[in-house]
Design brief:
Shape: globular
Helix content: 25-40%
Length: 205
């Protein structure tokens, strides 16, 4: 286990943010009793799949970690959030507007956008909701496959107050097979409200 700080981040990953903010966020992260464990993906482009998502607190824990690690990430957001006055702030923090009613072509468009970048981290929640749904959305795996980039699984473990940097899926061939591996990993990660995550029913290692 490690105290969270930007020394945990490989040099290949895109970075941003001042050192003072990173130190403040790391202090706040530790003050709440949280630590980090595991190793981050070492690649200029990757998808960070963060789960389980069972509480609004997930956002604040993730934000502390993001600032502490000084990571430059992009994320999806409902297009209605990108209008004034918050629109500029959403984009500043890496937001990518998505109109859900026009979902057709989104995966291809995002993968092409990633392919044009020299570096890019795309953070998302596979569940897409705080409710315990099954199956999880698989769009992130299709994006990774088309863009030929890895996916790192990241767990928010409230039982141990750990940010868990889990397995890196380097090559996406069989989406269904990969999803079973993903479910198995998150079965060992306890969300704040574990009853809202169906993976809590999986056998634990």
């Amino acid at each position: 286990m490690n105290k969270i700080n930007d020394k945990l981040v490989p040099e290949t990953l895109p970075r941003q943010g001042p050192a003072w903010l990173a130190k403040l966020a790391a202090w706040g992260f530790a003050k709440r009793g949280w630590t980090a464990t595991g190793d981050m993906v070492d690649a200029p482009k990757a998808i960070l799949a963060v789960a389980p998502h069972t509480s609004n607190w997930d956002f604040f824990i993730g934000l502390f970690a993001l600032f502490a690690l000084r990571l430059k990430v992009s994320f999806f957001g409902k297009h209605t959030l990108f209008v004034p006055p918050l629109g500029w702030l959403m984009r500043k923090f890496g937001g990518i507007p998505v109109e859900r009613s026009r979902a057709h072509g989104v995966v291809e468009g995002i993968s092409q956008s990633i392919a044009r970048q020299d570096s890019m981290l795309l953070a998302l929640a596979p569940e897409g909701t705080r409710k315990g749904i099954y199956p999880w959305k698989t769009g992130f795996l299709h994006i990774a496959r088309l863009a030929n980039i890895p996916v790192q699984l990241i767990g928010l473990d409230y039982n141990h107050k750990q940010l868990v940097f889990g397995p890196v899926l380097s090559q996406i061939d069989d989406v269904d097979e990969q999803m079973q591996k993903i479910y198995a990993f998150y079965a060992n990660v306890a969300g704040k409200y574990s009853e809202n995550c169906f993976t809590s029913e999986f056998p634990r290692e």
